[in-house]
Specification:
By secondary structure, the protein is α+β, with helices and mostly antiparallel strands. It has one domain: Electron Transport, Fmn-binding Protein, Chain A (Pnp Oxidase, Chain A), CATH 2.30.110.10. It contains 8 helices and 20 strands. Strands 5, 6, 7, 8, 9, 10, 11, 14 and 17 form a 9-stranded antiparallel beta sheet that branches.
Length: 322
Amino acid sequence: MAFRDHLDGAVKIESINPINEMRLLIESNPNDVIMFTSVDGAVGHSAAANVCLRDNMVNQFGIQPAELLNTLEWAMNNRTEPVKYQGDAPVLENSIEPVDLGKLPIPHHYPQDRGRYMSASIIIAEHAGLRNVSFHRQFVRDKNHLVARLVPRHLRTMVDEARAQGENVNIAIVNGADPCLLLAAAMSFNEPIDELTVASSLYQKFYGNAMQVITLENGVTVPADAEYAMCATITSEDDDEGPYIDITGTIDDVRKQPVIEVHSIHHRNNPIFHAILPALGEHHALMGLPRAPTIFSSVSKVCDCRDVVMTSGGSGWLAAVV
């Protein structure tokens, strides 16, 4: 399966403006998978939201809700290497030349936000023999530059170490990845773990085969069936990022954050851009669900743990019931 295969039964909405209007329509349909069949200013591109709501994911995976936590923990401990895609990968069917992020249906969700943000795009970074896959919101500064909020986790460490050596970090930016990869990318581990191997195990569990990947022109590995894959570099430059409405619905501060230079944009035929509205259900699900298995695993080392639930009062992130 691929991202687009999880859109069965989606509510279809035609012709929307990505500036604030996308947010209003997601707020009006908080429990439905939504497909925006056309987006102003992004000819040939559509968009989707609420794809990773918990109920939609378990329905597509063919499991009961209670099974998801155990499956995520299993994948953490039974990692599988992805396999190389044979043939012409779907994600390389088209390229945007010259690079122009303005041609993508990237939304400006809230009036308080600094501008247009990619909230569902994951960063796959490879440097010094390590790979990291993680979520980081990305502000569109201009046609070929983004400013990414790098929280102090593994990617931030990778970038700091590279900068200390006078080096940049080669990355891929992937949008419209299968939920298996999105769940893996949202996990946090104490030690560096290749999240692609966690995702590949989820593929194996749910779909019966390992995740298939290709290598971009900068050497970074990406899923072959993603909607978009961008070849990019995290530079040594910092610029203002924020304000931005975050998971709690409050305004996050302006900070100096790393600038990303985008070198190429590839996408599938009739691509579908994934947009996550901050502070609503899909954001809570992707932030909270992948945290539960790591909490479950840690608690199980000292006592019998039956379940872990990330509470809505904690925005699916800040509080858990064990």
